[in-house]
Amino acid sequence: MLVSAAPREESPVALTRRARRIYRALVERYPYAHCELDFESPLQLLVATVLSAQTTDVMVNKVTPTLFEKYPTAADLAGADREEMEAILKPTGFFRAKTNAVMRLAGDIVERFDGEVPPRMKDLVTLPGVGRKTANVVLGNAFGIPGITVDTHFGRLVRRFGWTSEDDPVKVEEVVGKLIPRKEWTMLSHVVIFHGRRTCHAKRPACGACTIARWCPSYGIGETDPDKAAKLLKFELAPGAQAPSPAVAGAQQA
What we know:
This protein has helices at residues 12-29, 42-51, 57-70, 74-78, 82-89, 95-113, 121-124, 132-142, 152-160, 169-177, 185-198, 226-230, 246-249. The protein is an all-alpha fold. Helix 1 crosses helix 11 (185-198), helix 2 packs antiparallel against helix 8 and helix 9 packs across helix 11 (185-198).
């Protein structure tokens, strides 16, 4: 994977300004960005996030209605019939391991938090199988507490944007958190992840159809022809919207 460094001699102030321009442009591009896991409670989102490992959100959303209808509480999940839960989770892959993870997680929530998902990072990360990424998903989307979700897409894109060269998710979270106001962290996570899934792909980014190309030091690592790039998008452009021309997309503005 090719990743360009940030513009040479970019000052901290210039980096912050560029990062915020990119963020604003992404919000304008994906105003509907949201958590793509379906949920009705913190418990449901926590379990769905755990289940999303090694599969798609679409697949998780197919199985969780049945799972939560049969096991609506943490106590129900902890005391579930293992074979029945495995049958429900089988489409997500690694269903035996995921069944173990869900039952253990739910049991811990029952024993330590009276069956309720705790709304604090320091408590969430003590739960089995829950790291900062999962905790931030739950805090930001179920509790309204701002958090930065550093998943594969987010880490890839912020390095391409030249916001950081860090690979460690915790360090990425720390660095990016200094560039964007805290109140925007959850939406930042959504729009960056949306962009990674729909435009800035891992193997072949659609650079020529990218709304933030003018501020991206990695412009050119993917397809730059607007027509060819548009075909790489995982969604259609909004009515009346046009992919940027090569001249506009290639303009590197700090």
